[in-house]
Amino acid sequence: MVFNWFRRQFAPESPEDEMPDVDESVSEVESTPKSDDSSAEADDPDTSGEAKPDYLNWAKAAFENIQQQQEAAAETPEATEPAEQPEPAEQPEEPTEQSATISEASEETHTDETEVLAEESSESSAEAEEAATPEPVMEPSEPEPPPIPEPEQTPQILSQGADAVNAEPVAEAVDFDEGFIWSAEVLAAQGRRPEDVSVEEITWLKKLRRGLGKTRQGLVNQIKAVVGQGPLNQDGVTEIETLLLQADVGVTATDRVLEALQTKLRAETLPPDEAIDYLKQLLREMLEEPYQKDYAPAITPERGTLNIWLMTGVNGAGKTTTIGKITHVAKQSGYNCLIAAADTFRAAAVEQVKVWGARSGVDVIANPGQNTDPAAVVYDAIAAAHSRESDLLLVDTAGRLQNKKNLMTELEKVRRIIDKKAPQAKVESLLVLDATLGQNGLRQAQVFSEAAQLTGVVLTKLDGTAKGGVALAVVQQLGLPIRFIGAGEGITDLRPFSSYEFVEALLSS
């Protein structure tokens, strides 16, 4: 069973069979809150006691299912180990030959016992000398291994990345804690079933919530305090506006949120919790606005055709790292991937791509020469993708704003090569943005959008000092959908974007 992260379900070969079940589960999950709302009119405290056990039972069922999966996975290697044990049974032939030698040796010992004793004494003395010699043994020469890692300074980072990949299934010791229950509530609200939940989803939601923790702690409580005072006055509007701007929401998105909140609170008074729920709905609608245009709600590689994803962005935004993480997600989802190292200008860019290709187990098409034509690399990569019947080709491009004209002409040339060499390919142009840059990152995005024909954005480094509100600013000012978000440095810390999960992690107290 392969878990497809792009479709968020197991068994990607038959997605149509599983979709009706998801819809039915959605209706079931949505029906339970309605029953709680009806009971809420009678007794508020009782409803809180009735709603939680439903999610708790769902979380417990999911936790038990994950434990069963882990036990089944742990039993498989144990079954293979005893199969290797029959080999010692073949060794009894050797003792027969050894017995003859032993008998001969015994005869010799009987004839010359004194010699044996002398040899034993000499051996014991030799052993005594050997016991004394270990002190001056040339062990100081062992410090020679340290020079070996010195030329492999980059591979040391590789080993950490490889350990991270191998540690993913091992680090699946999920605890039934608050983070697990919150993740279960988020998945259940989306219509997921307990038996379809994977360990990777739980760990990812925990990382996402942890990464947005700083923004959430400073935003939710203060908004609740302001909204709980009733209709918004000028002071309340100013305070909420300050909070949103500090969260890098941007001026355009902040004005829309304030206008909607004022209209809603003038029509009816909302308790703080209901006001937060309304804000969640509002933010989800804003993040999903690009889907109402020509953009698909999800970016998923199509099987049977070549998918080419151009990765653009400024140096330092995490572009090459994002390529390695996306290939890891795609490969684990059952897609055949290939990487084109078309950033031939930045020093060690090709080597860095090869490093991430080795981590994710994906081949890299590169030109061994220096300062080669990036379009030529893309040309060779498309030919290799066709010959290998690859599903997804990710192209690493240069990001040099100081040479903007050369960069734009280079990107345009790459697009022309793709249109000629793979006219039927499904092309996506993704811009990688460093979320820690805030509004400065948006200015960079506007420069790239002029020539790169962008179709989506990848937000990285949300686990640091980044403010989660930058996602709203990107959508509102650029009109582009967010396709992936990264909340960590590991190879598994980047996943496809979900507006529901993002808003819940941002505003759930």
Automatic annotation (TrEMBL):
Compositional bias of kind Low complexity: 67-88
Domain SRP54-type proteins GTP-binding: 481-494
Entry EC number(s): 3.6.5.4
Reactions this protein catalyses: GTP + H2O = GDP + phosphate + H(+)
Keyword vocabulary terms for this entry: Cell membrane, Cytoplasm, GTP-binding, Hydrolase, Membrane, Nucleotide-binding, Receptor
InterPro entries the record matches: AAA+_ATPase, P-loop_NTPase, Signal_recog_particl_SRP54_hlx, SR_rcpt_FtsY, SRP/SRP_N, SRP54_GTPase_dom, SRP54_N_sf
Ranges of Acidic residues composition bias in the record: 14-27, 38-47, 114-132
Entry binding sites for GTP: 313-320, 396-400, 460-463
Compartments in which it is found: Cell membrane; Cytoplasm
GO biological process assignments: SRP-dependent cotranslational protein targeting to membrane
Any one GO MF annotation of this record: GTPase activity
Major site of localization recorded for this protein: membrane
Membrane-topology descriptor: Peripheral membrane protein
Function: Involved in targeting and insertion of nascent membrane proteins into the cytoplasmic membrane. Acts as a receptor for the complex formed by the signal recognition particle (SRP) and the ribosome-nascent chain (RNC).
Protein name stated in the entry: Signal recognition particle receptor FtsY
Organism per entry: Acaryochloris thomasi RCC1774
Source organism phylogeny: Bacteria, Bacillati, Cyanobacteriota, Cyanophyceae, Acaryochloridales
